[in-house]
């Protein structure tokens, strides 16, 4: 699976960003897709996921009410709208395919995604004043 993540930038606390994750070589609408982030010295942790079941999304507690995940199957792209950004949101953000039986633990409980091997370049999000 090949993804290209874009949209990262440096913003002040309270700012907003929209990240994009475009897939190539396969159709996104057949897969559950998640956004993960990695801060220095830490594992990839789940932020939000979107299921193949229409309208089913998952968010880790720290981003609920601030982040919104969506998909545009025509553009083969997943988006993450991030509002009210905090310094602790700073990280490199990646997207990944998520098996159905792992959606809740990876995307709501933020279990580390040790077994995934196809991480792309990611996109850097910095939040500071």
Give a description of the structure.
It is a single chain. The protein has 129 residues and is mainly β. Helix content is 4%, strand content 42%. It has 1 helix and 10 strands; from the N terminus they run βββββββββαβ. It has a 6-stranded mixed sheet with strand order 2-10-9-4-5-6. It has a 4-stranded antiparallel sheet with strand order 1-3-8-7, with no helix packed on it. The chain is globular and about 40 Å long. The N and C termini lie far apart (36 Å). The mean pLDDT is 95.
Helix content: under 10%
Helix/strand-derived category reads mainly beta
Q: Count all strands and give the number.
A: 10
Major beta-sheet overview: 6 strands, mixed
Beta-strand percent range: 35-45%
Low-confidence stretches: none
Report the principal-axis shape: globular
Total number of helical segments?
1
Gyration radius (Cα, Å) is 13 Å
Give me the side-by-side strand order of the main sheet: 2-10-9-4-5-6
Alpha carbon gap, first and last residue: 36 Å
**Averaging pLDDT over every residue, what do you get?**
95
Q: What's the SSE pattern?
A: EEEEEEEEEHE
